[in-house]
Amino acid sequence: QVQLVESGGGLVQAGGSLRLSCVASGSIFSVSAMGWYRQAPGKQRELVAGITSGGSTLYADSVKGRFTISRDNAKNTVYLQMNSLKPEDTAVYYCAAGRVDSSSQWTYDYWGQGTQVTVSS
After folding, report:
1. How far apart are CA 34 and CA 49, in angstroms?
2. Pairing state between β 91-100 and 77-82
3. Cβ–Cβ < 8 Å for 53, 73
4. b or e along 59-96 (b: 16 or more beta carbons within 10 Å of the residue's beta carbon)?
5. Residue 1's pLDDT band (boundaries 50, 70, 90)?
6. Tens digit of pLDDT for each residue in 61-101?
7. Could you give the C-alpha distances from 116 to 55, 94, 98, 105, in angstroms and in order?
8. Do the beta carbons of residue 24 and residue 1 sit within 8 Å?
């Protein structure tokens, strides 16, 4: 099993910034991809950003140019730097860990507890 512990959520004004952190532990030998999802009230969970152990990244169109995902493999930690935040970014943000296969298919098997991000107008 893989355990994910998130931190960094909170309340911020529109235009401000936050950095989320996620530390992975346990049977992480099989993990080759980590990412961030979010879910707002009444909306479906969506992928915000993903990163492979090799550094390849993927972003949702809604956050491109504003959010940056990065990782420190030595510390088993992934980060999400969020700049120019908008009220529509308000959601519960979840860290996820999984695998990317030889066909570039990403599969997430483990999830964090979620951290609330609230952006005020």
Report:
1. 9
2. unpaired
3. yes
4. beeebeeebbbebeeeebbbbbebeebeeebbbbbbbb
5. confident
6. 999 999 999 999 888 899 999 999 999 999 999 999 999 88
7. 26, 9, 22, 28
8. no
